[in-house]
Amino acid sequence: MKKVIVIGAGLAGCECALQLANHGVKVELYEQKPSKFTEAHTNPNFCELVCSNTFKSTSLDYASGLLKAELSELKSQVLDCAYKCKVPAGDALAVDRNMFSKMVTDLIKSNPNITVLEKEVTKIPLSEPVIIASGPLTSAHLAEEIKQLTGESFYFYDALAPIIELDSVDLSKTFKQDRWNEEGEHINCILNKEEYTVFWQELVNAQRVPLKHFETEKVFEGCLPLEVMAKRGFDTLRFGPMKGKGFKLEDGTEPYAVLQLRKENILGNLYNLVGCQTNLTYPEQRRVFSLIPALKNVKFARYGAMHRNSYINAPKVLTNKFSLKEYNNIFFAGQISGVEGYLESVASGFLCAVYMWQYLNGKTTTVFPATTALGALGNYLVCASEVNFQPMHITWGLLSPINAPKEQKKSALVNRALNEIKNIKEQLWK
Q: Any idea which fold 163-307 has?
């Protein structure tokens, strides 16, 4: 039986390991927890969700919905666990993160073809089939090894949103509704112009955690700290994460600004501050967010924080099969490969498993076409510019164009993609 080493038991690594193991490959899965934790991790189980608890929308009106549909059709193991741990969040797939992490861990440890090795990898075995899925917080020793392989500097910095206790929220100053829907699961904290002005002024002047000597302000645009976004202008938040558009108050008017709260766990006692990634000091987070009327007496279950995100310059060093150009036995999956987001990490883990299985078995590699969300995501990694390469989440713009009327374009893209996936499904693992 063939053997593969998978480094990292996050979303991508677990999807890789499960897919390979379920298709007759022995997997040695290395994970440094629980003997060693990164600065952002605390849970000893696998697939720990750090930034938020949502895998984004399930609606086929969004590219993330199409990507989920493709992965479900192809029997993604990690995504299946996410659906089983779902908490109400409108059309978003949000999960109870502790339940989700435990479920994936149990699935991994009960698989007879997977051996879990709880130790840090400091050397990459260059002569063996290896999938590196060490994630955005790759340890220093392994990062140095990867730099030796790729010759690239590969880091940027990301920020986490706070999680608060529901019983500390003044619900009389909120309304429950999902954007553009009359009903919903999101709790929305209302701000009038005066309240928003005070909040914005204090936010832009609040104290941030000082960056260490090795840190820079190189932050991925899709996950900017709230205070950095606010400094771009008074109305930036009102046209971004705090926009009132799509909501109606009881009197029929649109709120001036809204801060959304999304359910964090099945019990419904913890909520995430949507879009509020931050690097403010803890005392400043308490002070600034409590200026929002509904959060005057807010209690934090977890403060926001900034952490390092590592990734390689994929278009320069990777093939369209997620393997290194210089070492065709070494593959990369997850955020370190240059995809951004939970769902995208699962997707890259699935793709990497397929390509590794085909490599091991000497098969002609089926490369997912850019007419599918899976293929479009992989295609971005090799076709993007090598200069200032930035991680990317799935968007409609990554898919191959289609000739259809504007009002029918999304449905045409979806139908084309899902038909392609059904055809590809018959060819995989054979």
A: Elongation Factor Tu (Ef-tu); domain 3 (2.40.30)
State residue 39's pLDDT score. Answer: 64
> Yes or no: is domain 3-154+311-425 CATH 3.30.450.40?
no
Below-50 pLDDT ranges, the chain? 213-215
Q: What is the pLDDT of residue 239?
A: 93
Task: Report the pLDDT value the prediction gives residue 151, as an integer from 0 to 100.
Answer: 80
pTM of the model: 0.78
Strand-strand pairing, 3-7 and 26-30? parallel
Distance CA 41, CA 10 (A): 11
pLDDT for 306 = 76
The span from the CA of 44 to the CA of 100, in Å, is 13
Residues 16-59: tens digit of each pLDDT: 999 999 999 999 999 988 776 666 666 678 999 887 889 999 99
For the chain, give every domain's residue range.
Answer: 3-154+311-425, 163-307
Q: What is the pLDDT of residue 226?
A: 94
- Element spanning 324, H or E: none
The end-to-end CA distance of the chain, in Å, is 16
| Residue located via tokens 């999807």 | 15
